[in-house]
Amino acid sequence: MEALTDEQKSKMGGWDELHFNRVMMRSPRLFDVVLPLITKVVAQSELPSHDRQVLILRTCALTGEVYEATHHVLISHAAGLSDDEIQAARTGVGLSPIHQLLARAAEELVSDFTVSDETWKALADHYSATELMEVVGLVGAYTTMAMLTRALGIQLEDEETMKSFIALRQYV
């Protein structure tokens, strides 16, 4: 990958070895839109971390997204999800009732770009209005991430580099 300017490195806030950031920096305007969106819907979400990770992993599986899915396996471990829970989130099989509901919401959003009345009502029994909005926003953001990472051919970092990013994260 091409060398970064000091200004670009500064903008990345210590995340300049992340391939996604380096590729996105080729379009600074897009970088300035996409990165804050991901930060808002993931790092500043009111959804519990387990629920967030189930939604992300399920969305990545549904969209065939590998780059973020691989990162979020590490993040999910840091959030306390077991290997079995991670696999269940990916497949949608063997989840707890609330996580089954979240997986269904992700499935509906990815396939139909909406949530059925039945699923929405069931979600509303467990989540605040803000959290309901975040369910939709999170699935939408990671569907966008799937398009970006797949279309732009963003490759995974080596395992050591990926693990080093876990320490930089202010969230799980």
From TrEMBL:
Domain of life assignment = Bacteria
Name recorded for this polypeptide: Carboxymuconolactone decarboxylase-like domain-containing protein
Q: Which residues form the signal peptide?
A: none
Task: Tell me what organism the protein belongs to.
Answer: Mycobacterium arosiense ATCC BAA-1401 = DSM 45069
Transmembrane parts of this sequence: none
Taking every annotated instance into account, which residue ranges of this chain make up the domain Carboxymuconolactone decarboxylase-like?
A: 28-91
- Which molecular-function annotations from GO does this UniProt entry contain? peroxiredoxin activity
| A Pfam family matched in the record | CMD
Lineage, please? Answer: Bacteria, Bacillati, Actinomycetota, Actinomycetes, Mycobacteriales
